[in-house]
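Below: protein 1.
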Amino acid sequence: MTQALVEMPLEPAGVPRGRAMVERATWAARTFATYDIDSVRRIAHAAAIAGENHAREFAELAVQETGYGVVEHKVLKNVACSVGIWNTYESHDYVTPTILSGDKIVEVPRPAGVIFALTPSTNPVATVYFKIMLALLTRNTIIISPHPFAKGVCTSAAYAMRDAAVAEGAPDGVIQVVEQPSIPLINALMTDERVDVIVATGGAPMVRAAYRSGNPAFGVGPSNVPVFVEKSADLAAAAQSIVASKSFDNSILCTSESVLIVEDSILTSFTKELTKAGACLLSTEQVEVVRDLIFPAGNFDTAWVGKSAAEIAAACDLKVPKGTLILVAPIDLIVPEEPLAHEKLCPVLAMVTVSSAARGIDAARAVLRNSGRGHSAAIHSQDARVTMDYASALPVLRVAVNVGNSLGSAGIQTALAPSMTIGTGFFGRSSLGENLQPKHFINQTLIAYNSNQSVLMPDFTDLNSWSVPEGSVPAYPIASNLEGAPVIPQPSNPVEFSGTDDLREEIRRLVIDELRQIIKG
């Protein structure tokens, strides 16, 4: 009897290419994991310099491609996330074993392996730079999946760093980028068992998709930053900091202030300082017009992401003083039904007044009940007791004091780790509670000796298994992002993930919804 042939279903377009990219990254990761600290530093430094050299070019391209933000501010972010990251961590060693003689333990750093990084359209180049620098400093390979709306500039940015790294001896395939994002391709990469960790920076649906992929993931939740100006604050300094922060790159950073809380006793003086700093205080009628524009039907219209205060005012047919940097919209209550009490990635700042510091803390907690738990908050105060009460009461993991929160909580103007990925921890349903930094991309193998003092531990000084690469590193046979790349067979033990269809649908819905909002009007 002839056995009937079973026709195998065709795989969606993009899946074979996704497997090929992971295979290439895995090949590179095996080699890169053996490099010594001097080789790693040379490679990371070369990538950082390449990023700095293209900082302005890519800032201009990012604004052209996305329509978001301010070129000069993007230049600053691009520099901060290239040579700035290098300067912060150049003396750190995520490669050489550490000897803890007193505990009789040797810590051996081990890279994660293959990182799959999702990056947003709001901070495209800076986030690409940042994640690549962290991967290189820790001997990881990385596959960048940019938001479709910023794929051109992100591809160029990734390739600039890749070329510099490979020229200094990094293995071919250490940095790859999804040039043409598609739902099947992203799904194939996200669920491939050979991906060691996913880093998702973007909207909440994308973060949830990363956590549901079956692979380890770092994701961050949304923000909605309350900023409290307490009566002991330096009012002029506070106003300048808040206006500068809220207008930085047209408020496109997730760390930018969202709702301003001011004590009644200083309201008149403080609003004068806000005006001097470049804020325009809206009337009740103007607030209604702005609300209707940026929150049609109660939902934020992403067409206004990264647009200037002047553009928003013009669209509302409002006359504002020349040089206006932000629009301040007084509201009565911080409740879920008030759209302006939610996150706004544009230079519109809601404002409420309170009778005391205690009521200010209550108001900030109300802001975070709307959204933003775990992310960040800011306060301007000279009173340590009030600051401690504020930080202790709010469900956030970083509180910036007397500094603009945009660059404060991002670690640019504070001693926090400089980062484009802000962990929200248990409060925000995230596995990451700190600002993402290189240490999160390694694990430590611990060599632990018998703690009995009669058992001696030998001398491990200068011992490690890493070495300087000998000669030139061979190129991967066929680049996986080119036509004609080999089809890599499916892993023998694929991740069993029953929610793949749901994941694919969630990614599709996220991309389509955001693109629809972007091109609206």
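Below: protein 2.
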Amino acid sequence: MRLSVELPLLGTDISHCDSNTFEVEIFPDRPDLLCAETLAHAIRPFIHGEEPQPNLEVIDGDITLAVDASLAEVRPVILAAVVRGVDVGQTEEQRQQFIKGLMEHQEKLHFALGRGRRRASIGVHDLSALAPPFRVITVARDYSFIPLAATEEMSIEEILKEHPKGIDYAHLLDGMETVPVILDANDAVLSFPPIINGEHTTVSENTTDFFIDVTGWDERACVACLQLICLQLSARGGVVEAVRINPCSGEEFSAPDPAPLNHEVSRSLVKDILGWDFTDDQIGTAISRMGGKFLGGDEFLHFLMPRWRFDILHPIDIIEDLAIGHGYDDLGSSQPEISMAGQARPESMLGRRVRECMQGLGLQQVQSLTLSNEADQFTKVRWLPQGEPTIIANPITNEHTMLRQSILPSLLRLIASNRHHELPQCIYESGYCVRDHKNTTRAAWLVADHKAGFAKARGFAQILLRDLGAEMATVTWEALEAGQGPWLAGRGARIKIDGRIVGEFGEVDPSVSEKFELSVPMHGGEFDLKALRTAIPDPVI
């Protein structure tokens, strides 16, 4: 029971657990838990209080890997390791299960850390089939070898066009005239990274000694991949042996690096974030449960964390580990020192009041698409563009070629789609429009009824302004000329408050209605909510 309660805090979620099966989902922020062996390595100190092992046990080796200078522009990060004496199981079923687990771990790391092998790719080989020392060079695309799962030699170009793995990952080598290959002392191809291994290095049920190569562009991702594969094999009794690497630039070094990373965190930052004044013993216990070691410190705390913890990017990540290791439930409680009560934004208050007024007028709220087209927005309703229209670069239909500048055309289109229903049809909408590539909020109504006319439209506008608290003495009604908008000549008006235009309304011209395949009398109007908010102070605030 304790396992099922506490393990999710480690970065996992238990989905099923019984006497035979243990199913666990790994959270995306912990790619170091993607196989049973590395998960068990993290669980032991977290659950059972075992001594953490943030370092990778590595012995010196005499195998070398030389990297040609041409790799600097092709695939500059090259790492390698040897693991000997791995216990792959006693029965054929156990050995097959081991190979399956190793390959699955490799592909999960390709996805999680390698980003589809772009940042890092891993090659796992049978060391007994190889002849050290090794070297990495670049070759032309007509270079040939026998790739994995093939029986005859194929050129690089053929692999990229015909082999399943080549087809999947050929895009990683786009634009490169030469490509990397890893050779042994007999010039046999171990690997063609990041695409595929050579056939003769295939890991079999009898393989106990392994050679691992990791290549890529992201050094940190490559280091984590190499460490995690080595950690998986060492958990099965393998002895990790360092490989001396002569890189394409810089000094010779050995990989993998056994030492953990030293992280420094301000003690005051820990208290500020978690609100808890930890003792040194509490810090040591918490970080030990997370697989690290506490080195002490006064103003700044020092921690040793495994190199394979790819998720640790910032001091805040160490603080999160402290919280998880200590337990969120044991951090105490506190009351906020400032008021956390929410307050509606002014535009939200206005939108609510507009909706209440429209509903009081018997209008039904609708929500249409912000996508429209130039014909509906401008040509049919006789409105000119307000600023530059926002056009869709690759529209999938002629009806959705731009972001709307006005709402009323959308309401006309909606009434047209429902013209077979009985009258009256009374609708309104409050929502976003885009003018000159900037969002603005507008509200519009449209009534389709045999009694619709200019007088009713003016009544709607007056009621809305009154409900919003407008001083009617400051409101002016300015007649629109024929052809200015969708209104019938002499039956359309613009509304101004203190000289500021806030909207317009009127009786819809039958010639406009016909363009939307409508023949019923209609009245409507549209308001700029930002202009209304500026012109009419909110009486509540």
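Residues 92-112 form the longest helix (21 residues).
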